[in-house]
Amino acid sequence: MLTYIFAIVVVLGVLIFVHELGHFIAAKIFGVRVERFSIGFPPRLFGKQIGDTDYCVSAIPLGGYVKLSGMIDESLDTSTLTGQPYEFMSKPLYQKVIIITAGVIMNFFLAVGIFGMMTWIQGESVYPTTTIGYLEPGGIADSLGFQKYDKILQVNDKPVQHWQEVSQAFLNNFGKDTRYLIEREGRTLTLAMNWDHLKLKDVQRLGVGPFIPAEIGQLVPGYPASESQLQVGDRIIAINDSAVTDWYQMTEIIHARPGKPLALAILRGGDTLQISITTRAEKVPNAQGEEQEIGMIGIGRPVQHLQIGFFPAMVRGFQQTIFWAQTNINGFVRVLSGKDSARETLAGPIAIAKLAGDTARQSIWDLFRLIAILSVVLAMINILPIPALDGGHLMIILIEGFRRKPLSVKTKMMVQQIGMFFLLILMVFVFYNDIARLLGLFN
Question: pTM score, two decimals?
Fold first, then answer.
């Protein structure tokens, strides 16, 4: 439980702080007085007044806000509308646009930075094959007619050189009809994916993976493999006299024998060795979220690591950020068009907390990646033209710019109240969604 609490505090804290910091910095640059910088929504819990600004933490941890002098926002406070030069409404249109969009821009930059730094530090892991080694029975790939050992040559007429390009091509063509040119037993054929009958959640059950040899790519410290005679580069060719042809077959055998001894036949160079090892029994969540006990020996897949320079890594970070932005736009469009269900697609704080906790238990890098993805999601949601969100404020100031005069205070108050009511209804809906998922009320 502590892992989940820590993870959600870190994830939401970083996202909210960076977003509000964008508004704060832009306001300070253009001389707008910032009355409050709050992490969380009122009531105020604690904080410190420094100069004109109250820096505080508030009770409802579902967002944050920067209160600007001379702006009617979700606080519904009109007392600062006095026409002073330091007020938001006294500034030129372009400055108001920058201040309003600065939070979204900061979330975008945060995602680019995280994706880019991860690529620079970790490099790029590549499976140097486009041959299918795993096919989930009943998955999308299986239903389309893919078979194990099919070699994918092209996706929508674009050649692919390794598995990461196959995966990226699938995601880049999300929501679009996709053609796969494959090679099977010396002949080529085309398989087509039609998205008319697929939904957003189907992305998670494509059910296909690359052919990976049963070769040890790494030994995890503290696990049985690292304490045995196994070495990186060893290829497992049999377990308990059962022949092993690939990684998936090998892991299936190991996972099915928690806490039991295994007799491994190892190919090392030109020699075949026999090594005995006992698996460690561990409990992990299955696809339904239920814990199951599996056997583990602590070995990693063989992958190629390509070192990426700093600036090319930042370009990759920008590309990944754009990809997730496009994916979110496509997702919104599919929900609005009725192709995807809002009940199945939207997630709230409870679902995010569970996702953050599960991710944190995997690795710190996975948690960073989740923060980057959610930063893009937060940016895309906030720029929507909904009153009380940044996009709603932007819409109002653009209307005022077009009219060349401000809307009345009464009109702005009404718009903000409608927006707050809409957001309240949406929050109730996503909370119900999250709780229903946890209780298994949805099929």
Answer: 0.69
Following DSSP, what letter does each residue of 107-164 receive, concatenated? HHHHHHHHHHHHHHHH-EEE----BEEEE-TTSHHHHHT--TT-EEEEETTEE--SHH
Distance between CA 154 and CA 182 in Å, rounded? 7
Question: Please, what sign has the CA dihedral across residues 310, 314, 320, 323?
Answer: negative
Q: Which of 370, 302, 343 is nearest to 125 (CA)?
A: 302
Strand partners of residue 285: 291
CA distance 328 to 337: 14
Nearest CA to 296 out of 242, 348, 258, 342 is that of 258
Amino acid at 57: V
Residues 205 and 232 in one domain: no
- In tens, the pLDDT along 342-356 reads 666 666 666 666 667
d(CA 191, CA 329): 27
* pLDDT grade for 257, boundaries at 50, 70 and 90: very high
% of the chain beyond a pLDDT of 90: 35
**CA distances from residue 14 to 23, 106, 340 in whole angstroms, order as listed:** 15, 11, 30
- 2-29 helix and 349-362 helix, angle to the nearest 10 degrees: 110
Per-residue b/e over 188-227, b at no fewer than 16 CB within 10 Å? Answer: eeebebebeebebeeeeebbbbbbbbbbbbebeeebbbee
Model pLDDT for residues 364-376, shown as the tens digit of each residue:
888 888 899 889 9
> Rounded CA gap, 54 and 231, in Å?
59
For tokens 């377990």, name the residue. 239
Q: Which of 304, 165, 297, 281 is nearest to 222 (CA)?
A: 297
114 shares its domain with 138: no
Assess if residue 54 is contained within a domain: no
The answer to whether residue 46 is domain-embedded is: no
Element (H, E) at 418: helix 409-438
pLDDT value at residue 349: 61
The distance from CA 113 to its chain's CA centroid, rounded to whole angstroms, is 14
Domain that holds residue 145: 132-210
SS3 439: coil
Phi, psi of 238 (to 5 degrees): -160, 150
Report helix, strand or coil for 267.
Answer: strand
Residues 86 and 194 in one domain: no
- pLDDT digit string, tens, across residues 62-78: 678 888 887 766 555 55
Percentage of the chain lying above the pLDDT 70 cut: 84
